[in-house]
Automatic annotation (TrEMBL):
Keywords of the record: Kinase, Phosphoprotein, Transferase
Protein name (database record): histidine kinase
GO molecular function, one term: protein histidine kinase activity
EC primary class: transferase
Keyword S-adenosyl-L-methionine set for record: no
Source organism, top-level taxon: Bacteria
Organism: Leptospira interrogans str. 2006001854
């Protein structure tokens, strides 16, 4: 799993440098996940690019990735300190197609829709916690 994360961060290395994003990859080398490699790369890229795209203008952007085993599940968490999402207003629409939640000219509203479908196609699910102006944590639960 750590290798997938490192590959994704290299892919967006230009953006990471440009915005001085601090990435904390706390995933142990020993964590393994059975997955569709293309899907995993796409999922990680989407979460990382979203974290950069929706960074808070008044803070150094930070993204922390961690993974832990709980019973028979692997939980990957991706936490940022960005703009956050108003969950009361948008929570039920978060993974909908063509849904956007910030005024970003590059937003298409398909990234989270595709990501959710890819996670579910691998037998997993996504949970999200977010606070406006505080950041967002996505958890991918691999069953």
């Amino acid at each position: 799993l750590r290798d997938y994360i490192e590959k994704a961060t290299q892919t967006i290395g230009g953006e990471i440098q440009k915005y001085q994003v601090q990435i904390h990859n706390l995933v142990s080398d020993s964590i393994r996940v059975r997955c569709n490699a293309s899907y995993m790369e796409s999922i990680l890229l989407n979460f990382l690019t979203n974290a950069v795209k929706y960074r808070h203008p008044d803070r150094v952007p930070e993204i922390t990735l961690n993974a832990e085993r709980q019973e028979n599940r692997l939980i990957l968490s991706i936490k940022d300190n960005g703009l956050g999402i108003d969950m009361k207003k948008y929570g039920d629409k978060l993974f909908g197609m063509y849904k956007t939640f910030h005024n970003n000219k590059d937003a298409k509203g398909i990234g989270l829709f595709i990501t959710k479908n890819q996670v579910e196609a691998m037998g997993g699910k996504i949970e999200v916690e977010s606070r406006l102006n505080n950041g967002t944590t996505f958890r991918i639960i691999f069953l």
